[in-house]
Amino acid sequence: MFTGLSGRPAGLSAPPHQHQSGSRSPGGYNSTTYSQSYATSSASPSTASGSLHDLPSSERALSASGISPTHISSSGLNAQKRAYRQRRKDPSCDACRERKVKCDATETSPCSECSSRSHKCQFTKETNRRMSSIKQVQDLQSQLAEAKHQINHLQSMLQGGGLMGVDHRAMDVPMLKLPEITPNLERRQGPPAMLNFDHVRKNIRIYGRGIFKAPPPYRQTTHQQSFTSPPPNMPPRDAVDHLIRQYLDSIHRSYPIIHWPSFQHEVDKAYAPGGCNGMPQSWVALFFAVLACGTLATMDALSNSLRPEAEGASYMDTSARILSPWTEELSIEHAKASLLISIFLTEMNMKSAGWVWLGSAVCIAQDLGLNHETGPWPVVEGELRRRVWWAIYAWDRILSLDVGRPLLIDDEECDVAFPSPVDDRHIQPQGIIRTPSSYAPHTGLAAIIPVVRFVSHLKRTLKATSISPHTLQTYDDYFHGILSSLPDNYHTVVDTYLDPALLPSVLTLQVTRFHLYRHNLSARSRPAERVDALRRCTSVAQETAKYISRTLQIPPVKVEHSEYSDALGTSWHTRVLSTTSNMLCAHLWRCILILCLRADYHAALICLRLSSAIGELRKLNVACGRNIAFFLDRLTERIHGGNGSHHHLEQDEEMLAYVSGDMQGNFESSWVWAGSEIGLKLNHGPSVSVGDNTNIRENGEAFEGAHLSLRPATILTEKETREWGGWERIERMIGQLMEEQRTRIAQPPPYYHRPPYNPGKRVQLAPDAAATVVSTPASATGPTSSSRISIANII
Question: What is the DSSP string of 657-676?
Answer without folding.
Answer: HHHTGGGGGSTTT--TTTT-
